[in-house]
Design goal:
Length: 248
């Protein structure tokens, strides 16, 4: 704010505001169509007063054990990449150019050599399996052998088992989610519980690894289990199975 100094009749100085300059351009509200999502630091939200635009909250990321493990694995894989030879780097770059994907507009997007190296070896490091220093020349074919989730409750002892077929795909991850209401038909918050154990009479017991991660599921709830191969084999896919926990 600008001020100017004057003199009163009593001879004392006085302060008065200087006249403001009138702006040549006035800013007005502009009505826009319905917005959704976020742009930079602005988020469009719906409220009881209509649609509003607010700023993103500044929250410090909560460091969990799973996030810390993922960061450690990525740092370990990055250190291994720096120790590879130039020949190995070029081999991964060539393999990445063939392992890209097509976008919605029909444009092919190649995968970088380091990105492919991380994509292949991060799951192996998580499963404590030997890493691949050279890109695989050819991936074998195989389908996900999991058929269904079977939950039994005998004498209040709940057991979770996966029924599998005869087809074998080496090293499958087992992912689970916390037990939920029986009315839910879709889950997305999966977390790795371990590797698929060896089958016994066509059943793989995953009770110990699930209970260790999420606890014993209550009777009447629904459990979702996802299985996926560590390395994407040709013809392999993710499978989601679910089952209700029966009464004893």
């Amino acid at each position: 704010m600008r001020q100017s100094v004057g003199v009163t009749k009593t001879g004392r100085p006085s302060l008065r505001r200087a006249p403001r300059k009138q702006p040549s351009l006035y800013i007005m509200k502009i009505r826009r169509g319905r917005q959704s999502g976020s742009l930079d630091n602005a988020v469009s939200v719906d409220s009881k007063h209509g649609q509003l635009v607010r700023s993103k909250p500044r929250r410090s990321p909560r460091l969990t054990n799973a996030r810390a493990d993922a960061r450690n694995v990525l740092a370990f894989i990055s250190a291994i990449w720096r120790k590879l030879t130039d020949r190995q780097h070029q081999a991964w770059i060539r393999a990445g150019s063939k392992a890209g994907k097509w976008d919605e507009e029909g444009k092919y997007i190649p995968l970088g050599g380091f990105s492919l190296f991380v994509k292949v070896n991060c799951p192996l490091a998580t499963a404590r399996l030997p890493l691949m220093m050279d890109p695989p020349s050819r991936l074998p074919r195989g389908r996900n052998p999991v058929r269904a989730l079977v939950i039994t409750n005998r004498e209040s002892q709940i057991k979770l088992q996966l029924e599998v077929g005869t087809t074998r795909v080496p090293h499958l991850f087992v992912l689970g989610s916390p037990a939920c209401s029986a009315g839910i038909s879709f889950r997305s918050n999966y977390a790795i519980t371990g590797l698929l154990p060896a089958p016994v009479h066509g059943l793989c017991d995953i009770t110990e690894q699930y209970v260790k991660k999420f606890g014993v599921p209550p009777v009447g709830s629904k459990v979702f289990i996802q299985t996926r191969p560590i390395i994407r084999y040709q013809g392999s896919e993710e499978k989601v199975t679910w089952c209700r926990v029966p009464a004893a």
